[in-house]
Amino acid sequence: MLRGRQAECAAIDALLEQIRRAVGGVLVLRGEPGIGKTALLEYALESEDVRVLRCAGYESESQVPFAGLHQALRPVLDQLPALAEPQRRALSGAFGLGEAALDRFMIGAAVLSLLAEAAEQSPLLVLVDDAHWLDRASLDAWMFAARRLEHEAVGVLIATRNEPGAPDAAGLPELELAGLPADEAALLLDDLGVAGVARSELVASTEGNPLALRELAAAGPMSYDGPVPLTDRLRQAFGRQLEALPSGTRRFLTLAAADDTGDLATIHRAAPAVGTSIADLSAAESAGLVRVTQGALIFRHPLLRSAAYHGGSLADRLESHRVLAAVTGDEDRRAWHLAAATIGPNDAIADALEQAGRRATARGAHGAASSAWARAAELSTDADESVRRLTDAAEAAVTAGRVEWANVTALQTLPTTGDELQRARLLEIAGRAEFVARDLHGAHAHLLSASDAMAARDPERAFWLGLTAVHTVWSMPTDPVLLVSTVDHLAALTPPGSALDAVAWLAKWAALAATGSDRSDHPDLDPLIARAAEVARERGPHALVEVMSFAVMVNRDQTAADIAAELIRDARQRGAVAVLPSALAQLSLCQVVLGRYRDALISGTEAVTLGRDTGQELWAAYASSALAYLAAIQGDEARCLELAGLGPGTPGDERATGTQARAALGLLELGLGRIAEAYEQLAGVQRGPVRHLSSVQRSVPDFVEAAVRMGRANEAAEAMRRCATWAVVMDEPWTDALVLRCQALLAADDSAEDLYVAALAAHPLDERPFDRARTTLLYGEWLRRARRKADARHQLLNAREVFEGIDARPWADRAAGELAAVDGSTRLRTTSADAGGLTPQELQIAELAASGMANRDIAAQLFLSPRTVAYHLYKAYPKLGIRSRAELTDVLVPR
């Protein structure tokens, strides 16, 4: 019986009951060593009708790629053939059984699918102990899969300490374990037969830590010269128990603690070389310090393992690693054992670790590769080799998401090398790490320096570094001088006669759109984007993402949407999960402004989810700001406010996401008729530190309308001037239409009508329905005030019909109110026929099913399980008023 853990046991029972009902779930247990995390995992094991997969992190195993993943999934690998090809390939590659995955997140998607397949036979519970010691590749895969559990009979229970390496469980259910209450601690001591005055002192000194109560009580009186941390006290308590064992047993346990597999056969083979044997294990088993289960030697607690290892002499520990290296059949473990067995530099072992790092990279385990190369650098006798290996380690760390360590390592290594290529690589690492960490000025300086240093050795790489420097400026507060100089620097990096010239000109166009300078010497924009996209396609998806981003910057929304759709199709086919958040986020914004609201809801929702799951919070925030704008159009105040505050960017800050979010809040207030609040929000957008973004120019019509209705039209003059210049540069009908609308609002005479008519003529008929309906509404309101009721009624009816069709509720209400003022007519608002009350994910799945895709193929494309797909279809049918899959094509038009 677990004393004092009733609430925690109830939470585990609820998780078990949940997975029995085929509803996936996850629970994270956090707490200090000995607080009872492992005991709660053991409690979960008592459920007899649930199949259990189990793994535990080991400190010595944390650098072996996918060790923790393979440990748990080994019993269900027979399900691999059932997975979709990209996922089967990714997981096989991770385990060294085939080609490596292109994307580390695809491995997490494959884990999810494998668990879902295994759970078809019986409910499945995954227990992950000491997650803070798992190798990074395994931990990333587990967390990706855990976040996407929905309607699979799979539960994941994770135990971890609060220390470096612990999983980021933001948004997942968590329990923080505290010490036992005094009365429960006393009952535990009763169970142990501890009596007398020592009881209260023990409870007080351990703060109710269950392991400490057990082990310190068993160890007997202990004295200390001063305060000793609880972990050290526990280690000492375990040490006293180990000291009571025969010397051969202690030597055997030191060897076992040095091993990172727990494989008894491996330890048995190594034992004779250190003067011990498996017979010496009996005393430790009798004392309850270890147990043997299915060929594995398991210490009672990780701290006991630590005590057994550090309790041995240095010579014993070194010898243990040497003999284990000799008997292991795993090249990576052999390299790490050799590294642990050496004192001082050793080039042969450094070479072995370098090869281990390369194997880890080939399997997509960049964190393990980084650790291997960093240790290889320490063991290198040659200074240049050490620098090269440290540089490799830092590059891999950026890829693995360890940007802070990578940045520190790069900057510390930089002064030690005189090689220009190594300097360039280190500067690039620092710049990319600082960009991720949002130290934009530092990133800009280092990326420019890196591109200059790289120019002579690798001109093309230097060019793309310069392009990244342009992005850093774009993310800063507006600085036209810095932006133009950085773009000019990029142009100077373009190799003579290179096709990259098209990309450089595209960056110049983005600067032109931001600054409103002369465009006379610039090539035509639309053919230029097409050429730049062709150049980028030859260089891979990340280059094409750059071109897509610039297409958004220069307001070619349809072109950007087309490139994004191409990237998404390719990423789904190749299993490149990491590309999806950026492409989906930018696609969602383009779809919002183009008026494809259903599609935008699907794209944006997936971008937010995948952005969070892959740690790309900036793209999650970008997509949420696009969805906030959609919610503002539709008058959904609660959702708009929630989305505008999501992620690292907050409304009104210096990020692009914050500016877009604040523009959305301004539109929301305007639509709801709260004009003063709208004016304040939109004035903040126009007068804030970021003025070069297209979202600032696009919100000028909202600002002008709010200013006019507040009687402060003169205060919109500067914003209107910038917007007019921007429209001339962009040379698009829709930008001209917005400027004409603003001029009509500001007109003090009858010229307003001509301006409204011209604006309506300029609005495209096949896209941007909200913008066109806004102009129609304002024209109708102007006609009503001019007492031209028949003309006003015609315009207002048109506006209301469009607003109702796109579910822009407050704007439809405003049009209806104007109509009532014209002739007293009213009409109930209708809902978009194709919405059907479906959630974004239900709609996405229903559309794919309507296109003829099978559940398994839909699951692979969306990184879900087939059971989750089936569940969402089951929920969608009644909402659509149908009973079967065959009827989907009658109510949904596939995209």
Automatic annotation (TrEMBL):
Coiled coil: none annotated. The keyword Lyase does not apply. Residues 831-895 form the HTH luxR-type domain. Signal peptide: none annotated. Keywords: ATP-binding, Nucleotide-binding. It holds the Pfam family AAA_16. InterPro entries: AAA_16, P-loop_NTPase, Sig_transdc_resp-reg_C-effctor, Tscrpt_reg_LuxR_C, WH-like_DNA-bd_sf. PROSITE patterns: HTH_LUXR_2. This is AAA family ATPase.
